[in-house]
Amino acid sequence: MIQLPNHKSSTLVQVGDRVLVRFGTRSIRAEVIEDLGGIGVGGRQIVRVKALEPTDGEREEFEVAADELN
Amino acid sequence: MVSRSLGKWNIHRKAELDQMESAHGLTGGTSRGRRYATEQINHAYAMLLSSQFQGFCRDLHSEAVDHVVTHFSGGNGASASLLRANLVWGRRLDRGNPNPGNLGSDFNRLGIDFWDQVKSAHAWSQRRKDRLEMLNEWRNAIAHQDFSNVRQPLHLNDVRAWRTACNGLARTFDRVLSRHLTAIVGAQPW
To answer: What is the number of structural domains in chain B?
Structure first.
């Protein structure tokens, strides 16, 4: 018998959505490119995003929790 | 309780892999053509197994990172994004096979001697690790159509043995990460 965590996950954003990621003291416009589903703490949605603007050699793709997006 | 990543492996990823078992069973007859068809299905099954296991390992890493980030960012979204981005930056599982080297490299960044812990957690871990290595050698052979480093043909029982090894490793990874996260964040993650 497989026992799964009993939190419900919710989908806040979808692949293709344009979002704003707060990254340190600035914000970066990005697009959601992959939905990893509700695998975060308490079932929160984790997504992979791609920056839509130059990031000065920093990471262009990264993961964020959907509830941390603006 | 298990991680959400292991839950997904046990249900959704299992269902995907079971479809390959069904496809193998649907290829009937004893002709030479049938043997060729089943071998191609075995190749596809091995590729799918490796990619699904890669997906599981990446999910588990992301899930573990979320626990670390949630604990250490103190609810500050800007810090959380920064911390998370750095923990997954250059992650080998995003681009490469889920071979033992890549797994160790990625999970060790969470402050754990990953394979040492996995081996001490279960007596069969070394054997399972060897089978995972073989699965990834086959994955590369199939992807590049270069079979010089593997012994052909690939049988269904080979893939089944690798799948059993992946199942065992998935359970051990889940347990080892749970123990490790409990030690560093002070609360059981799952």
So the answer is: 1
